Amino acid sequence: MISVLAVEIPYWGQSLLRVLGGLVAVLLPAGAIVYLFLFKMMSFMQSRLGPMEAGPYGSMQLLAEVGKWLQKEDISPDNVDKTVFKLAPVVVLLSTFLLIVVVPFGPEAVFADLDAGVFYFLAVGSVSVLGILMAGWASANKYSLLGGLRAAGQLIAYELPMVLATLGVVIQAESMNLNRIVEVQNTEAIFGFEWLGNPFVITQFLGFLIFMIAVQAELTQPPFDMPIAESELVSGYMTEYSGFRFLMFFIAEFATAGVFAFIAATLFLGGWGVPFEWFGWDNLDDVSWWMNIVGPLILFTKMLALVFVIMWVRFTYPRFREDQLQTFAWKFLIPLSLANIAVTAILKVAV
Amino acid sequence: MTELSERQQLSYIASQAADARLNVELETEGMTLNIGPQHPATHGTLRIIARLDGEQVVWAEPSAGYMHRGYEKLTEVRTFPQVTTLINRIDWLGSFANEVPFILAAEKLMEIEAPPRAQVIRTILFELSRIANVSLFLGDLGVQMGATTPAFLAFRDREYVLNLIESATGGRFHPNFDRIGGLKDDLPKGWINETTAVVKRLIGFCDENEDLLFGNEIFQSRMRGIGVIPAHVAEEYGLSGANLRASGVDYDLRRDNPVGLAWDKADWKVWTHPDGDSWARCWIRLQETRESCKIVLQLLEQIPAGPIMTKVPRIIKVPEGEAYVSTENPLGEMGYYVVSKGDLGPFRVKIRSASFNNISITPWVLKGVYVPDIITILASLYFILGDIDR
């Protein structure tokens, strides 16, 4: 029996809470990212105001957009493979929900506290490739097919640097449990200086950079947006989708950005925690219950900071060519991350 | 030549046969990709038929004509002053520049010349329309490669140029301002000061764009060494404008073909680039925008006083004869071959528009490139659909 604020909750209640929590944890970051960054920050960078009509400063614009998509006709062309075509956006969105399961939002606020949490998110992170390939193949469109194949090649190529960059963190934290990684970052010290804890962004800076580059590629954001490449492939694997199915791809894109930023914040920025030293906590069991409420807010803030960087790059850079992208992954990022692991391991044993 | 033993010869034949078998087994079927007529990269309705092997182009062919409006034929049923309304819409981003060569051709047939003040103002407006045209190209270049910000910066600063053109001529996109024998109106009050400020702003935009886009390493790696056109090939295909100068050919009609406009009164430079790749073509256009700004700034200070119109009859009849006048338009050489039979309107007009010749090189230059490079090469060749199809 799990109790929340000393009230015992039956199993069905827990399940309901988890489903609602999962929806909030996926949709809220997606909405925040779309409004704050896609609508507003992009506009300010491009010397315009962005949406201003719907609600104060256009804050209700997102609801208007969702309403627009819901009203649109759900078109599926004649030659598409109907089942696969309709299933593809669901699979893509599903991978986002699978990812959020292991993200710790507080000492006890985790959907599933897996011992191999890092392994789990690396594994399910590539499920979206399946959905994208399905969409590309089933659309019966040459542009979609090219986009789908590019996406598959790209996501697989950048899965490796991501795994290798994460390994550095795992070596340093000596655990694959994400909550344990948070605990280590907030309790350890850098050269005896305890006030800041030991966020791995400092010791694993190279790993952090590689991870963020790989995240950028996994999200197919510019400069890695060849699968969508609106000036070449119209809209890549999303070309034939409209209405609610397009909305699902759209939500998945930004929700995944949020989830990957959550994970990056957990791995490198100390996750939901602040340095435990500040409140005199020694380890995870010491942490007060109210961190379950404040923790998500802290994590959310860190997530927004990381997404800001992702979006900043997105609105500034032109995109790579497919072969340049592969070269960058295989000849530059992977050797660099291997070196990072070697150095981390040597220092871990030696120090 | 070295002697081969029998054994070596046999092993060579065997390896060739193995290769052939492998090629048959692994042979991939080509895919024909229609880029356009409706496609974001074609600025309108150009269709590029590309046969692909994987993502590599084996064969490509442009198919124009989806936006043919028949302007050459339509001019035959218009009077001479009415024709400018039509030809405004050929290269719709730099409309004023389209009017000038036609008017010059008509003036040549009538053996009249616009007064000096009109000539200088014509040149200023010509260069302003070049700035309006090419600044949009510089922004659009980013969009073709997925960077959205430069486009908005371009639209922001181009707006001021369009405002200038509007306040002088009354039309933002289609001024219809040039007249046989001069100009429709004189410049409005305060226009010169305003223009000086705006042109300086545009120079700032060029610097900004050079920092943001041209200095970007991804942009350079996408552009350098891609779509190389050697000088002799460029000349054979009849390229003109920045595309020709990017291949190292020092040829600019503003300098080499004086037609009476005031370019020789300003101090400016014709830029060339030895590389001939996409990067060179974009870089030349960036430099030319700066040169245009310099020309405008210099000419603004030496607009002579006087009338803006010579004496022309109320009803214009152009004497019998033929004339060809071409100028260096934003997209390249644009010329009008005007045949008159002494009527109110031209008997026949042949329009030599720059983009039509510029895209004729696509089958040659697209062979063997990857699909993403099609987009950058087309972007760097810079065509306007109205200029191709007329």
Descriptive tags:
heterodimer, A: about 350 residues, two-stranded antiparallel ribbon, 12 helices, B: about 400 residues, alpha+beta, Cytochrome-c3 Hydrogenase, chain B, 8 strands, about 10% strand, globular
Textual characterization of the structure:
The complex is a heterodimer of chains A (351) and B (390). Chain A is built from 12 helices and 2 strands. With 351 residues, chain A is mainly alpha-helical. In chain A, strands 1-2 form a two-stranded antiparallel ribbon. Chain A has helices spanning 11-45, 61-71, 82-100, 117-124, 127-138, 142-173, 178-187, 200-203, 205-218, 243-268, 291-316, 322-350, and strands at residues 2-4, 7-9. Chain A has one domain (79-350). Chain A starts with a strand and ends with a helix. The longest helix of chain A is centred in the first third of the chain and has 35 residues, at 11-45. Chain B is built from 16 helices and 8 strands. A 3-stranded antiparallel sheet of chain B has the order 1-2-3. In chain B, strands 6-7-8 form a 3-stranded antiparallel sheet. A two-stranded antiparallel sheet of chain B has the order 4-5. In chain B, helix 12 packs parallel to helix 15 (371-381).
